[in-house]
Amino acid sequence: MSSKTKDFRLNSSRASGDRKLLLFDLFFTGHHAGYILHLVKYWSEHKLPGRLDVLVTPKFLELHPDVIDIALKDAENNINFVAISPEEEALLKFEDSSLNRIVRSFQEWNLFYKYAKQLGSTQCLLMYFDSILLSLALRRRPPCPFSGIYFRPIFHYSEFAEFMPSGHELILQRRDNFVLSRLLRNSNFQTLFCLDPFAAERIRKFKGNVKAIYLPDPVQIYNTSETQSQKMRQTLGIDPDKKVFLMFGVLQKRKGIYQLLDAIELLPSELCQQLCLLLVGPIGSEPLIKTRITELAEALPIQIISHDQFVPDQEIQPYFQVTDVILAPYIHHIGMSAILVRAAAAQKPVLASNYGLMGQMVKQHKLGITVDSSVPSEIAKGLTQFLVSPSTEFCDFSSMKSFAKQNSAENYAKTIFKYI
């Protein structure tokens, strides 16, 4: 831990009022920093009463100094970042397997119990409810009243027309139904925030006193001028006569990258000549992606531009502005994705999977085209539609604007603090 952050571990001397709210999040990648950032900014700007403790890992403090700086900037905002010990962090399971997720759930419970007691928390917001829900349902009484943000409910997916559950998905549905039936009767459970509006509506029908609230998926949009967009297009070296298809984020197998590349290989030469594939984000642990990209670029008259780096939040939106179509062919993705919000804010259509919540949101808000992204030929049909027809045929720009506004960072933070 750096000298800049070490002094405010377990610092509870700045309390104002009786409320001691604990934000609990032991992940440090993806959306986690942004979700904390928006709440910390809102608390600081609106001078909310009480004390806000944010429990994170030492790795979070190292990677996200911009979030920490908000707490350090104003001594009167009563915000404290608290880090678990390096020894506790080293024991946490991060590998993505069923066994590790179960072990991780009980590890989080123990740390939640320990630090909520140590900090004297009067309530806690579990920032990633999904990772701890099993232990919450099975362990003893929690140390304080709690709420949670539910990212990936799947128990209701059978109500979606195109959902054909696999054996694994059936297990997840049964797990969620079992856990919710127990948790919603817990007298200390206050509010369950859902990024899925269909799940929130369904949970309200369960027996129990817990409030189920639809939570906007927050995106902070920074203004991008036309000049900046043109400059980025030149910097990236995009051919002026190409339609740009953007895939943004860590390129992983589950994002449908291989199916996308297979789909492009199915396109006729005259369509490939019109296409620029823009890949922005770390390629990570998928070395075969680079090989496939090289082979595709050599075999077809297509332009492929790869920016194999992490992109800070304030630098993301220009990539959406220079793009014609946003690609989200995720494979059996459960839950929401901020990609849809960013695309809507940029007024750019998406080519997305028809699976689950993402498919439903694209259809309901008229954000673009949905396809069975597990089938390359179906993705190829979607690409063809965008290459031969104007985008106005596939989306409603007014609906997209409303969808983006609904999912603002301000609306997200306001919703949370209204219900806890």
Q: Report the total helices.
A: 18
Strand order of the largest sheet: 3-2-1-4-5-6-7
Please report which band the strand proportion falls in: under 5%, 5-15%, 15-25%, 25-35%, 35-45% or over 45%.
15-25%
- CATH topology name of the largest domain, in short, is Rossmann fold
Report the span from N to C terminus: 31 Å
Specify the oligomeric state: single chain
How confident overall, as mean pLDDT?
89
- Shape descriptor: globular
The CATH class of the largest domain, by name, is Alpha Beta
| Total of domains | 2
Radius of gyration: 22 Å
Unreliable runs: 1-16
Q: What structural category characterises the helix and strand content?
A: alpha/beta
Number of strands: 13
- CATH H-level superfamily title of the largest domain: Glycogen Phosphorylase B
Task: Summarize the biggest pleated sheet.
Answer: 7 strands, parallel
Structural features:
420 residues; alpha/beta; Rossmann fold; 2 domains; 7-stranded parallel sheet; globular
Describe this structure in words.
This protein has 420 residues and is α/β, with parallel strands linked by helices. The chain folds into two domains: 6-218 and 408-419, Glycogen Phosphorylase B (Rossmann fold, 3-Layer(aba) Sandwich), CATH 3.40.50; 226-406, Glycogen Phosphorylase B (Rossmann fold, 3-Layer(aba) Sandwich), CATH 3.40.50. Helices cover 44% and strands 15% of the residues. The protein has helices spanning 32-46, 58-63, 65-73, 86-91, 98-119, 129-138, 167-183, 197-203, 226-236, 257-265, 269-272, 287-299, 317-321, 338-345, 356-364, 376-388, 397-406, 409-419; strands at 20-24, 51-56, 79-83, 123-126, 146-150, 189-194, 211-214, 243-248, 275-280, 303-307, 325-328, 350-353, 368-371. The longest helix has 22 residues, at 98-119. The chain is globular. The two termini are 31 Å apart. Mean pLDDT is 89; it is low at 1-16.
